[in-house]
Specification:
Strand order of the largest sheet: 3-2-1-4
Helix content: 40-55%
CATH topology of the largest domain: Rossmann fold
Number of domains: 2
CATH class of the largest domain: Alpha Beta
Radius of gyration: 19 Å
Length: 275
Amino acid sequence: MTDKELAYAKLEELKKYLMELQSIAVAFSGGVDSAFLLKVAHDVLGERAVAVTVTAVFFPKREYDESVEFCNKEGIRQYFCPTDVLETEAFKTNPSNRCYFCKKKLFSEIQALAFEKGISYIAEGSNMDDDKDYRPGMKAVKELGILSPLKKVGLLKEEIRFLSKELGLPTWDKQSYACLASRFVYGEEITKEKLLMVEKAEQLLYEFGFRQFRVRVHGMMARIEIVPQEFEKLIEETVRQKIIDAFKEYGFTYVSLDLTGYRTGSMNETIHIHE
């Protein structure tokens, strides 16, 4: 069986699994994985598959707008679940298992909304590759009984991108995304002001045309992660100076470039120190 045939076989298995569900609410961020899951669920279940998008300070406006655009284009009903994670002390203080407390709160509120709407199941878009990184939030997902259909059928990120392209989804080559809270070194307090600083900084990099990036926060220092192939673009004098000036205007004192380049979960590289 070729790689393509294997991907299509997993897609058919996913459809069969979703078909067995009476109704489903997909936690929808607008990213590659949740967009693919939502599309397939809607294709299979029709109006019995809906999107639930959390609105919170760690969710950038750009991502929110793209999620709305996607649902409108696909004709999918979208519900919004406003939440204030900053009222959760274990989120604000940012321990190494912060994601557990965040997911527990978010999915508990999504469950309440789904119950109110008479929806039977809630699903999220984790795939097999997500097991390669430290993800304490998955403990909360399991505790609350949230479904992870993409993992259940063994789909990999590369397969999801391939199938998304085959389905004509605009998200097939979208950059990877994680919530803004993941930009902070563990132990540093997370505030609304700091989250907005990060959102502005990353929006600027997006507007400059950088494809994959993160702005990590270490106190008042911004550590920029981009792919090494784009280093030259960033250090071009005009671009470099505009980024420095803007970041300082946003509230950062220091602006640095991580020479290792972009990688997922870089804040977890010293996780043993915090456990």
